[in-house]
Amino acid sequence: HKHMRYMWIPYTDTVVCVTNDPEHLVPRSVPRNQSSKASPEEKMKPLTDLLQQLCKEHKTPFVAEDVKGMGFGELRDALLAFNPLDIKHVKRCNKAEAEFWSMNEGYQTKPSDKLLQFDCGGQQWVFEVCFPTGTQEKNNGNDMEFMEKLMAGIEENQIPAHAPIEQRWSASSSSLMSPAHGPPDGLHSWVGIINYLPSEDPKQREAITNLFTGKYSDLVREVGRPMGVVSHWAKLEQPRSVWKAVDLKMSYQERFPVADFNRARAKLDPKNILASPLLNLVLGVPKP
Known about the structure:
By secondary structure, the chain is α+β, with helices and mostly antiparallel strands. The protein is 42% helix and 17% strand.
């Protein structure tokens, strides 16, 4: 496939697979437009039914007309907002999401820019890492081993992991500073974990932030360390301790040609205008 995305739903056995291909390359036996016969309201029922049940349990008003105007991401936020860090509650929400995707499977033909975008939901924390997984002709299995260990670690550590955990693949890059740097026929996998911030309650948001940037992201690094995972540059976060800062700096020194890059920085940006405190921490301050 030209584009492929896996969406793993924690605490379920569901993995949603989304593929995209140029129409002229798709066999004629594959339907061009086909979906379940359920109405849009019926496709949302796993989410709306759970929302109604939660409103009843928490003695909160449930207004059916308001719910009709809510999209998938809004409904997921509304569900999680009741207790986004409670394991049992997150499991119920993830189960409803898995059922939602099952009811929405099918085929459609549209311009690629419309098919490749999707509802990401509301405010959220995201941490995305990249690692090599063999070649385009021979995958070495790192991608599935990483996910199996990550999903097992989530359950063992009872992490309230929101859905989905996204996994994608790309060809290797010739750029020396790319997380996906590798040989011309190389294959890399990208995995992003997520936790939503479904309410404006400052204490709840702080608790979610602490869990995500601590225990959850640490698990991703631990699982991926033998595979050489590094963060997407735009998802790199400030280390929460001196030891984590040292570990981060050492891993990037091993993974990237930092000395060569710093020489280029010193020559092309002698006043270090394009840097940030975080980049200076990870890469060091270039000396003119």
